[in-house]
């Protein structure tokens, strides 16, 4: 799919600036109850002024300019300014620690760093080279660098409409590092635009949509659906202020399209159960006249009552969770993609999603299964390759242009894709039998107190599962209540899960861990995927005692 320059994201921004200058594009909380709105005219004016400043720096053409910030309106404006000035954007996750920050800045050969809204700048800045120039965006932590506001106030905007070659590199997106050292996927302008164009055709997303941007824009999922979707479609973006204000942010945005990750969908459900116990809610939803009112009230309370299209990505969703949301009247669809194809791979079609499947290929995407069961995908949004890694690029792509995803998959006769797990995640027990963790973890996640789970047990007679409890369950335990009920409930759940598994897959026990698995403590990647090596290595010293205990549910003691 080759799009002309006139259909690229940057050119669409010029179009909206010209045709709908007074339409609000970005709504940004500034703190203290202040909300700032940017029309297409005012947004592009700031981007043009920053582009003029970047030009004045006389950096080499197509320089790599890094950008680290939580999601804000100025993240989008900085991206546009970098492109207008003729350069390449290198986004960094706003939760990285110093080592990875330094690794990416050095590997990408960044010439400049935009620093925006951050919670962990003190942990990151040690990884930033002292001689790397910086620009402080609005809401940035205090740092010795020129301020965005001052630059914009003192700089005249560019008056031309710079265009970029569609096949030129627009951005380098670094992988989250769940399988080791982050790799820099080079993504072209045409790949980014093709992805946004394809999702609009699949979902009928148009210019009247409203979206809340809160998943990291440094990740392809948010960049593809939210940033590129809004540039191509011209719709309204809202930004979240903080975790504490998230529900209020949702209420302000009244999104018509909402995308998230399984962990948040589970937390929404847990929040509902905290107010209305599950049994009571099921009873209310079974009463015809009352159920409609209950569903509306719940969705309104979540801020999702205007949503017509909801999606989940990054990790599999429990099938029961999908059914639960559908019972509330929210069609929750799964999607699938990778950094290497700008997340443009598969998505369920509205009205046709099959729980347990991640959908059919987007327009222009081809799929097949290799002889060893690996999913291979060819996408119009494929990367140009890994930056400075030609050998890794050749390993990742077949001779006929298919990406080796590393995922095991099955394709149904109707084209729907079912993911089975990562090829590298399967392990062998001491009995010589292979275990694939993902399907077992999906079954385990269908329990209201389980928030994260990791199936392990390499070289053990039988596998086991490490379980992190939900925030609500941990709070109850902190008050000294609920442990017996949780043990009993998890034991019954384990029995039901094991009944659905082959003998060599049956879990010997569930181990409830004391730690909370977070991005900040290294258990999760910036995209909230479990770092299996970290999880397994952390609890390996406890395995012998747990296996010897002979109990279906064991507990990590303080």
The name of the CATH architecture of the largest domain is: 3-Layer(aba) Sandwich
CATH topology of the largest domain: Rossmann fold
Shape: globular
Please state how the strands of the largest beta sheet are arranged side by side: 11-12-13-14-15
Defining traits:
558 residues, alpha/beta, Rossmann fold, 5-stranded mixed sheet, 4-stranded mixed sheet, 19 helices, disordered N terminus
Question: Can you offer a commentary on this structure?
Answer:
This protein has about 550 residues and is of the alpha/beta class. The protein folds into three domains: about 5-185, Rossmann fold (3-Layer(aba) Sandwich), CATH 3.40.50; about 255-305 and about 305-385 and about 390-425, ANL, N-terminal domain (Rossmann fold); about 425-555, GMP Synthetase, Chain A, domain 3, CATH 3.30.300.30. Helices cover about 35% and strands about 20% of the residues. It is built from 19 helices and 26 strands. The strands form seven sheets. It has a five-stranded mixed beta sheet. Strands 2-1-10-9 form a four-stranded mixed beta sheet, sandwiched between helices. β9 (about 210-215), α8 (about 220-235) and β10 form a beta-alpha-beta unit.
């Amino acid at each position: 799919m080759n799009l002309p320059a006139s259909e690229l994201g940057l050119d669409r921004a010029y179009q909206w600036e010209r045709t709908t200058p007074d339409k609000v594009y970005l709504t940004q909380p500034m703190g203290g109850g202040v909300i700032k709105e940017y029309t297409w005219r005012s947004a592009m004016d700031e981007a043009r002024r920053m582009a003029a400043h970047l030009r004045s720096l006389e950096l080499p053409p197509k320089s790599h300019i890094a950008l680290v910030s939580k999601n804000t309106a100025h993240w989008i404006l900085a991206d546009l300014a970098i492109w207008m000035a003729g350069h390449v954007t290198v986004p960094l996750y706003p939760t990285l620690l110093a080592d990875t920050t330094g690794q990416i800045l050095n590997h990408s050969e960044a010439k400049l760093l935009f620093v925006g809204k951050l919670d962990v700048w003190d942990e990151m800045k040690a990884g930033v080279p002292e001689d790397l120039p910086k620009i402080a965006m609005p809401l940035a932590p205090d740092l010795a660098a020129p301020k965005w506001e001052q630059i914009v106030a003192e700089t005249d905007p560019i008056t031309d409409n710079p265009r970029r070659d569609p096949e030129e590199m627009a951005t380098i997106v670094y992988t989250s590092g769940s399988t080791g050292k982050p790799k820099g996927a080079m993504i072209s302008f045409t790949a980014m635009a093709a992805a946004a164009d394809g999702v609009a055709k699949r979902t009928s997303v148009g210019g009247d949509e409203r979206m809340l941007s809160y998943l990291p824009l440094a990740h392809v999922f948010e960049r593809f659906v939210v940033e590129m979707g809004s540039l191509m479609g011209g719709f309204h973006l809202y930004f979240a202020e903080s975790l504490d204000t998230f529900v209020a942010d949702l209420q302000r945005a009244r999104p018509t399209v909402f995308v998230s990750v399984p962990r948040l969908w589970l937390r929404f459900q847990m929040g509902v159960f905290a107010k209305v116990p599950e049994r009571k809610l099921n009873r209310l939803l079974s009463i015809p006249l009352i159920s409609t009112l209950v569903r509306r009230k719940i969705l309104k309370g979540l801020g999702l009552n205007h949503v017509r299209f909801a999606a989940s990505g990054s990790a599999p969703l429990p099938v029961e969770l999908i059914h639960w949301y559908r019972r509330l009247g929210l069609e929750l669809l799964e999607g699938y993609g990778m950094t290497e194809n700008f997340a443009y791979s598969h998505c369920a079609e509205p009205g046709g999603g099959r729980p347990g499947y991640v959908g059919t290929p987007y327009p222009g995407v081809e799929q097949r299964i290799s002889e060893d069961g690996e999913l291979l995908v060819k996408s119009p949004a494929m990367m140009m390759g890994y930056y400075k890694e030609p050998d890794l690029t050749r390993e990742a792509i077949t001779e006929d242009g298919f990406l080796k995803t590393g995922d095991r998959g099955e394709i149904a006769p109707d084209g729907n894709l079912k993911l089975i797990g990562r090829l590298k995640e399967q392990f062998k027990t001491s009995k010589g039998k292979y275990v694939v963790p993902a399907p077992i973890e999906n079954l385990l996640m269908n329990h209201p107190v389980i928030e994260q789970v990791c199936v392990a047990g390499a070289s053990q007679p039988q596998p086991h599962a490490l379980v992190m409890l939900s925030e609500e369950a941990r709070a109850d335990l902190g008050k000294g209540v609920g442990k017996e009920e949780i043990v009993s409930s998890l034991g019954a759940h384990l029995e039901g899960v094991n009944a659905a598994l082959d003998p060599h897959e049956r879990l010997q026990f569930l181990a409830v861990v004391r730690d909370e698995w977070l991005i900040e403590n290294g258990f999760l990647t910036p995209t909230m995927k479990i770092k299996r090596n970290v999880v397994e290595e952390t609890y390996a010293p406890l395995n012998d005692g747990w296996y010897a205990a002979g109990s279906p549910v064991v507990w990590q003691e303080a």
